[in-house]
Design goal:
By secondary structure, the protein is of the alpha+beta class. It has helices spanning 21-29, 81-86, 93-98, and strands at residues 31-35, 38-45, 54-55, 62-63, 69-74, 89-91. The longest helix is centred in the first third of the chain and has 9 residues, at 21-29. A hairpin with a 2-residue loop joins strand 1 and strand 2 (38-45).
């Protein structure tokens, strides 16, 4: 008998406790890391999503459009979530790892 690749359970494979759409995608990629005692939100940006040039704070070089990289912002900032998001920075993946 051939193997079935269909998910088992509810039709469509969706559970009630899972978020939908973009929120689910973003939550799946974003993670929290602790660096030098500071908690950071880190979210990868794929090459297809990278549409602007940014300057990496780790090496000071440009991250051109079309290059995969990371976006990092404080998760425990004292000024609130809006200020933390406004202060987010785009990093080369390798620069973030060694920073």
């Amino acid at each position: 008998m051939p193997r079935s690749n269909r998910p088992r359970g509810r039709p469509g494979g969706h559970r009630d406790d899972e978020p939908d759409g973009l929120e689910r995608l973003l939550a799946g990629w974003r993670r929290t890391e602790v660096r030098r005692g500071v908690e950071w939100n880190v979210q990868p940006v794929s090459a297809a999503q990278a549409q602007k040039a940014y300057r990496c704070p780790g090496c000071g070089r440009d991250i051109p459009p079309g290059v995969a990289h990371l976006v990092a912002w404080r998760a425990d900032g004292v000024l609130g979530d809006a200020a933390d998001l406004a202060a987010r920075r785009h990093w080369h993946e390798s620069c973030w790892r060694i920073a």
